[in-house]
Amino acid sequence: MPTAMPAPTPTAERGDERGREPMTVSPEPSIRSRSPSLPPGSHYIGIDLGTTLLRLCAYHPDLQTVRFVPNERDKRKTPCFVAFPDDIELVESGRKACDPVVGEEAQRWLFKYPKATVFSWAQLVGLKFDDERVAFYQRYAPYRLVKDKYARVCVEIEHDGRQKHYRPEDLTAILLTYARQNAEQALRHPITGSVITVPAGYTLLQRDATKEAARQAGFQHARLISNAAAAAIAFGFDRPAHPTSVTEYVLSFNLGAAHIDCAVVGIDEEVFEVLASAGDVGFGAADVDVRLLMHFVQDLSKQSNRKLTSLDLLSLRFGAEKIKKALSTADSISHTIQLSSGAYAMTMTRELLETLCADFFDRCLVPIQQVLVEAKMDITKISKVVLSGGGSHFPKLRDRISSLFPGNHIYDFALIDKHKAVGYGAGIESALLSGMRSPNITNYLLIDSLSFSLGILDTTTNTIKTLLKRNTALPAQTTVTLRPIPPTTPPTSTPPAPIAVIKLYEGDTTDPKTCHLLATLSTPIPTQDKHITLSIDVDVDRTVLVTLVSDETEKNVRVTDYPMPVFDVSEDWERGVGVTVVGAGERKGQAGGEVEGMEIQD
Amino acid sequence: MYTIAQEAEINRILSSSAPQTILQVQRSSTKQTLKQTYRIKALLVHPDKCDHPRAEEAFVRLRTAFETISAGNGPWRSGDEEKTSGMGTQRERERQDSFE
């Protein structure tokens, strides 16, 4: 059984070796030789890593297509639960007290050990503790969230009479370890690579944290693709024969429990290109549960003076989820929820649910408008709208979306179940990365794009100068020339420092306060009027490599934003000088080639 | 693993500089042909399809060339180059022939 595994070391004990000191500066040329793909013959697996459910999809050599991998209970989906029960029953069965249990096995401990059973943590990955989404999450979670030494959020688990802190990515690592062991057992070969679906709105930090979880779980390579892109691949697999050499534009909309993903994907035979993507992380179908829960609490307070314990809230929350699902097909439902003060019976109608969630549907449509604008795509050019994810079952949402597009454009999957579209997409991508060739799977190519712009701080204006715009196709490279700016303050006794400090940001605005600092880098400068050349290189796995060239020195820094932003500056960096951007960013591909007269006909 | 064809294509892209040389399209090409050529070449040199150490570089070049040509409408430069309607320049014709 793949449920027994060593618990990862909690953060507190790991802190020292991961302090501020380890600078990610590798001098050797190997930093350039990046091979994101594993050696030929390596096996990849597709993982639909949802907030509430996990699905595994892999290539089946006998059937020559992708299939979902059952877990040890022969189910195709595993609930995302990790529990650390301190139970005599487990000790008797030979399990060590500190070993986590995963999936349905963990779900059954929820009401017995609510403080040691974690669920729906995916939305917490890579968040700062003071993020407003953390406070909102805490209101409905039975366990405590705390701050770690990097001010990031951690889950506090009561365990063995002691409190232990787990970062959300540690919990993801436990889940992914389970997934890998499960798949290895079912497929009978080692698995070293994974294709994991994440929300499109994940920042580089959240992606790095997920990759770290995959690394801890034993995957040597993890390719992260967005849920919307995965659903689009599944659409390409499922769609009826399409006239070749006509590009088809689809809008892929995925509403998960705690995210909205939206992307415009151009499908040109076997090339899938994400033209624009947008998302809302931390907001999704689970917010409907919370609204229902608040409605129940209000209703109960009217009924009688019933006291609600935290366990009651948990029962109401999971009851709300059931009612929500039922109302996607039924017009009304009667349901009874067992509470500590007795049974609570209620009747809920779809109309009331839709009234409670009126603004929810409005917010769902925002990313759709956003991607259409960003992809510069006219609504009439979209041939199909692909809906996936549990939340897309709301009849109201379907109506709202179809009213946006003229004619009926909502695509209903023919061959595959639309619940499983994301998993299928991940499975197909994993088969392709494994190098599988089969008559049933076309040799697709997914060209993903940047989720957020990358830029550096221009110290003359104190704004961020964007170097790589969001939705730039990956891999992407750019080069820019910088000029060091001497400090404006009158010269003091200290001579100006011979280093320039460059701050790299991720975000869509020009205000450094609203963007996320990825790295602070420095480079020695001979004199202040000498220019520096800065190159940013983002590969298919979104690894950011920065090259700084000034005078005779060249320096490569691999920016990994994990677990802290990169601080590569030397001791006297405070005396370093800022930079300004001279000349527009130049794409590396244009090696000064002349463009001859050319006409392109439509 | 990469095939000889993939390696040859990468070397060809990296040694070319003008966008239409990289994409091997002519001035008479339609958007259709341009997209199709780009797609076929992308499938050859994209780092997911080819683990050649310079695949990424070649792909970025290919992509930039494709974007440059797609963004422009009509001739960008008229002048000294020999102009023929519909068939591309003499040099391009020769190059085209050598590929066939």
TrEMBL record, chain A:
It holds the Pfam family HSP70. The keyword ATP-binding applies. GO terms for molecular function: ATP binding; ATP-dependent protein folding chaperone. Keywords: ATP-binding, Nucleotide-binding. Residues 1-39 are annotated as: Disordered. Residues 26-39 have a biased composition (Low complexity). InterPro entries: ATPase_NBD, HSP70_peptide-bd_sf, Hsp_70_fam. Belongs to the heat shock protein 70 family. This is Hsp70-like protein. It comes from Spizellomyces punctatus (strain DAOM BR117).
